[in-house]
């Protein structure tokens, strides 16, 4: 009856066909990172199944030599299980596909695709499990019993962790694989499970990494990450500088001698101040801004304060609601730069002499 395991393998394989018929959305979701990871796992497990299949073929040839009359029975069981799988499971897979809810479990990936790929992964794991079981049955690998009255050596948790075999000199022949190289003989003592799964995990990671960063380009590589980080840093610097510029007041303002700042200040002066002070700063209704005499102080801080708060009693409005602190600093810097220039028709001096820079 142990041949039923082969039938179960074939039934599981047949489950994939009706599900595929209901999963046309999988191909449209293949560019999703989660889908890429799951497809990579499916491909890797399929490769493992292929390798196990080749091993099973070899082990079956050994088993057939031991059981000459079992070949026909095995073939019949495979055929019957294949037919049963196609007929009995087609309706069940169709019903499960139709009952999928509308809400997406993974954003950007349809539930049909998720169920399909998870089902395939589980299916492949079950197939691998049964193939290993059948392989053990074909080869009839059994532990060599210890001699009567001789206690078998144990290493407790370490052996359990590594699943190693404690073999004495008398038992080596039963585990000898027949491979000899310079007197070194190979025994049937496989690598520990943690090492095997670590190797499998590294292979899965390598496939996913290769696909994500070099095939689908669905995630940035280290150079692109550096470029993105630099771009974000530049944006933060600009935002900080803009915020710092708007934190200027009459106590922290400094003279802006840059050509760009002076040009911006000149534009603001020509548009908003020339009507009272003249386009060259010589003064009309307002005072002359080119000489050393100032009514409210001639320092850059005094000029900034005068523009910001205005002089309502003398007809000058406050500009703090019209200009940003940076614009007021640019305007004050331009007015400051007019000192010492020669206007066409300067107004008589007003105020006190300012000798500072």
What does this structure look like?
The protein has 357 residues and is mainly alpha-helical. The protein folds into three domains: 139 residues, no CATH class; 49 residues, no CATH class; 95 residues, Orthogonal Bundle (Cytochrome Bc1 Complex, Chain D, domain 2), CATH 1.10.760.10. It contains 13 helices and four strands.
Summarize the structure.
It is built from 13 helices and 4 strands. With 357 residues, the protein is mainly α.
Helix share bin: 55-70%
Radius of gyration: 43 Å
Structural class: mainly alpha
For the termini, the CA-CA separation is: 105 Å
Apparent shape: rod-shaped
- Structure summary, number of beta strands: 4
Number of self-contained structural domains: 3
Per DSSP, the total helix count is: 13
Assembly type of the shown chains?
single chain
**Strand order, largest beta sheet:** 1-2
Indicate the mean pLDDT. 75
Q: What composes the largest sheet?
A: 2 strands, antiparallel
Task: List the secondary-structure elements in sequence, H or E.
Answer: HHHHHHHEEHHHHEHHE
Residue fraction in strands: under 5%
Topology readout:
Layout: H1 4-21, H2 25-28, H3 33-66, H4 71-98, H5 111-139, H6 157-162, H7 172-175, E1 176-181, E2 184-187, H8 193-215, H9 222-245, H10 259-272, H11 274-277, E3 293-294, H12 300-309, H13 325-337, E4 352-353
Antiparallel strand pairs: 1-2, 3-4
List keywords for this structure.
single chain; 357 residues; mainly alpha; Cytochrome Bc1 Complex, Chain D, domain 2; 3 domains; two-stranded antiparallel ribbon; 4 strands; 59% helix; disordered N terminus
């Amino acid at each position: 009856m142990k041949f039923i395991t082969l039938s179960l393998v074939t039934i599981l394989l047949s489950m994939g066909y009706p599900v595929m018929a209901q999963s046309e959305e999988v191909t449209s979701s293949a560019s999703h990172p989660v889908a890429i990871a799951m497809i990579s796992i499916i491909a890797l497990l399929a490769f493992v199944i292929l390798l196990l299949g080749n091993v099973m073929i070899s082990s079956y040839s050994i088993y057939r030599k031991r059981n000459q009359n079992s070949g026909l029975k095995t073939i019949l069981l495979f055929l019957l299980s294949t037919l049963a799988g196609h007929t009995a499971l087609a309706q069940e897979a169709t019903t499960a596909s139709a009952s999928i809810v509308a809400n997406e479990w993974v954003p950007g990936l349809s539930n049909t695709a998720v169920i399909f790929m998870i089902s395939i992964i589980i299916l492949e794991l079950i197939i691998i499990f049964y193939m290993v079981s059948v392989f053990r049955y074909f080869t009839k690998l059994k532990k060599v019993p210890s001699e009567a009255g001789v206690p078998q050596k144990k290493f407790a948790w370490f052996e359990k962790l590594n699943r190693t075999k404690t073999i004495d000199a008398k038992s080596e022949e039963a585990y000898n694989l027949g491979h000899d190289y310079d007197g070194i003989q190979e025994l049937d003592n496989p690598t520990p499970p943690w090492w095997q799964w670590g190797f499998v995990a590294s292979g899965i990671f390598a496939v996913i990494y290769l696909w994500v960063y070099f095939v689908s380009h669905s995630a940035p590589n280290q150079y692109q990450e550096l470029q993105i980080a630099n771009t974000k840093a530049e944006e933060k610097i600009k935002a900080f500088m803009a915020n710092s510029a708007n934190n200027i007041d009459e106590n922290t303002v400094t003279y802006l001698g840059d050509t760009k700042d002076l040009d911006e200040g000149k534009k603001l002066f020509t548009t908003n101040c020339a009507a009272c002070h003249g386009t060259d700063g010589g003064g009309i209704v307002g005072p002359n801004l080119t000489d050393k005499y100032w009514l409210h102080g001639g320092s850059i801080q005094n000029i900034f304060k005068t523009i910001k708060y205005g002089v309502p009693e003398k007809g000058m409005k406050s500009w703090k609601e019209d200009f940003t602190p940076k614009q007021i600093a640019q305007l004050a810097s331009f007015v400051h730069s007019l000192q010492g220039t020669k206007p066409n028709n300067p107004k008589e001096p007003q105020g006190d002499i300012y000798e500072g820079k």
